Queue: 3 jobs
Job 1
Amino acid sequence: MYRDQHTQRMFSTLELGYSNLLLGCDRLLCLGEGATSDIDRQECREVGAALISCLENVRLLEDLSLMPALEHLAREDPVMRHIFRRLSAEHCEDACQMEEVLETLDALAGRCPLAAGYARLLFVGFARGMRRHVHMERYAMRRIVGIEPATTITQ
Ligand SMILES: [Fe+2]
């Protein structure tokens, strides 16, 4: 268990980052669910900028705190090993999907005649996948610091 002040501080900052990332996902979900050829260009630009900034911030913090702690615990704990492998794989997938989301937001903001249905599927799929990913990371983080995950995770 990691109860030292440095880890606690990093995890608190990471919690804030996750909250912001989930808000970005909510905005993307709204944009996706209401996507038509008449989509709000400014909203596309803002959502894209907010999402990439949140994701980069969270990734940096995860690389400095969550992932090393998980990797360490994974040596002894099969549950943590499974979580570590899964989260590592999801990070690679998320990076590729995020690029696709940003390109699509750019295309929509620039009035590219892109099918709204495609944007809808992409945005909704990404936002839901990212939410699941963040909930798993929060679960792992709370387990690491010794908080009972089952009673503290909010879906
Ligand atoms: Fe992550």
Note: DSSP finds five helices and no strands in the chain.
Job 2
Amino acid sequence: MHHHTRDLIATERCDVLVVGAGPAGLTAAITLARYGIDVLLIEKHRGTSPFPKATGVSTRTMELFRSWGIEQQIRAGSMRVRPVMTFARTLLDEPAFAVPFGYPTDEQALAQSPCTPCCCAQDHLEPVLLQHLYGVGGRVRFGVELVDLVDTGDAVLATIRDETTAAVERVEAAYVIGADGPRSTVRAAAGIGIEDLGTIGDFVSVTFRAHLTHRLAGLPAAINTVEMPGAEGVSCRPAVTTGGSTPGSGIPRPANGSMTGHRSTASS
Ligand SMILES: Cc1cc2nc3c(=O)[nH]c(=O)nc-3n(C[C@H](O)[C@H](O)[C@H](O)COP(=O)(O)OP(=O)(O)OC[C@H]3O[C@@H](n4cnc5c(N)ncnc54)[C@H](O)[C@@H]3O)c2cc1C
């Protein structure tokens, strides 16, 4: 623990502190808040992710969203796709082959469940979850980073830093949930190590807006891999971009028509 934070007194208390407002943190916080538990969610960024990222929402997850009354809001930002990854020369060519994800067809899902799986990108999903969390009484603080965590035996003392003002405060919680992604501060503070299995590749992620569906014959695949010489390794994920941001949630959005990208390294 850093010496200069040792004397801070707790300015905020909660039953459960959830660190990270991605899908895991938002759903964990919602689950707790729905049971009446006093939950505080902190997220270092100023809003939920502006990137579409993953799009596959399973049948079981849709059942949970249905039980929370938000299934239709999530479907409003979804797109009908075939649950396969195709490999074709270009997006317009007949795929050479398709690899199924193992998702059921709508008919198979409806034989077991009131729900079907859904293709909904994270920039639509996360704002819906955030609004639901506010609705069930969850407290959320954006632009606040967890920098240190100490287990006192009876409580967890978290040191958090406001990203705008650099002000440091202390939160006391009975429990903490580390939903802070692959480079988790919570995991490191809890002394849980990781085994580095190496890198499987470097990826550049580019988000662009284009109306392509009318040019494609039939339903697009969830992941469309292009194999034209010079464009090998390009993999397109269709997604509905509904704007994502919800009034009051303070979500920074790329301007319409803009391209945004970030580089990531995937590890196995
Ligand atoms: C192009 C692309 C495609 C993808 N496709 C798939 C896919 O098909 N299937 C799949 O399962 N996954 C996919 N992913 C990965 C998917 O986005 C992640 O699995 C998912 O976001 C993980 O959710 P999470 O809530 O665990 O963590 P994250 O979404 O990473 O959320 C963690 C949050 O914690 C915050 N945080 C971190 N440290 C701190 C801290 N110290 N204090 C406060 N906040 C902190 C971060 O800012 C972040 O908002 C894809 C990602 C990309 C970019």
Note: DSSP finds six helices and 14 strands in the chain.
Job 3
Amino acid sequence: MDRNDVPAYPVGLRLAGRRVVVLGGGQVAQRRLPSLVSAGADVVLISTSATASVEAMIAAGEVRWERRRYAYGDLEGAWYVVVATDDPEANAAASAEAEERRVWCVRSDDADAATAWTPATGRSEGVTVAVLTGSDPRRSAAVRDAVVEGLRDGSLAAPRRRARTVGVALVGGGPGDPDLITVRGRRLLAEADVVVADRLGPRDLLDELPPHVEVIDAAKIPYGRAMAQEAINAALVEHAKAGKAVVRLKGGDPFVFGRGMEEAQALAEAGIPYTVVPGISSSISVPGAAGIPVTHRGVAHEFTVVSGHVAPDDPRSLVDWAALARLRGTLVVLMGVEKIGAIAAALVAHGRDADTPVAVVQEGTTAAQRRVDAVLGTVGGVVKAEGVRPPAVIVIGDVVTVGADRE
Ligand SMILES: C[S@@+](CC[C@H](N)C(=O)[O-])C[C@H]1O[C@@H](n2cnc3c(N)ncnc32)[C@H](O)[C@@H]1O
């Protein structure tokens, strides 16, 4: 039988501390070296040149570099060799040495002559997926992508037998577009028994949950603000104590005006294990979705995110508006629709130019996204006249007009 018709025998090599020789410092080495380094291999690169990325790995001490051509004897003591120089004769010679010394040998130029094949690999939360199709690397990559994607977003049912997530996951769901949740957040959502969801965030994802999942709408908890938070904390504790996998799905990032730490503290007090999954905050992503960078070279070297839920003259306000008015950079105001007139007036009164551009982006990243432009001196009136409603992110500063030429 032709050896090439026989399927390869899959195996996971445990290379930690073992000598691996890579011949050639080009694109192939660049692709293979990171996984070899992650596997803890003692990697020796033999090549006359290296790409910039490979050089960075050498400089970081992850790979030892012998800057020369391959010579017979280089594979002595090696467990594994990647042959990828641009010299076919050197490749054939190294391959012959590998055969002689019984070192498994991958060849970039001649898969038929190789004694080992590199599978298309991917990783998701402790699972390594490795796919071999023999002679069709594109198909291997496509199958790998499908499996990894399915594991990540939970659409590939692969229940964890040993380590199911227990307790509560405080998940930042991003600004609203269901594609803008993190991979980890989406997977935890797919594994949840109970989901406690906010009004903001990727609500469309709730439709995808299987019928047995209990969804608690935190926005409908019928108390005042403080009591509602206590009721949410109590619900998280109660369901986690009942042994359920609980996801607290929040808009944006849990720790940006999200009361995430209050929930974490309540869980810690009740002895419930929890994990925090960061999310894409609306403070950066909503301006971005409307074509506004919160920083731009030569325009803004800082951005400040501030809550506008209480007016500047309100004794409860913790914001130093006078100091903010002195800054030249970008000011991003969350929860500020109602008080924007008073906020703009305070900024102008403390010295910020009344002509400073302002953009108000309502329901960013969703199908209903809407942007209204003004300047500090007019924004209070414009927001009222245009009927802008929360949720909206207000961006103040010269970055607002940076993308204007594109539109
Ligand atoms: C209680 S804060 C929560 C912020 C959230 N944790 C974050 O990191 O984005 C709610 C405010 O976030 C802003 N916001 C959240 N999602 C938004 C969206 N899709 N469009 C516009 N503003 C949004 C609004 O200013 C809203 O009033």
Note: The two ends are 64 Å apart (CA to CA).
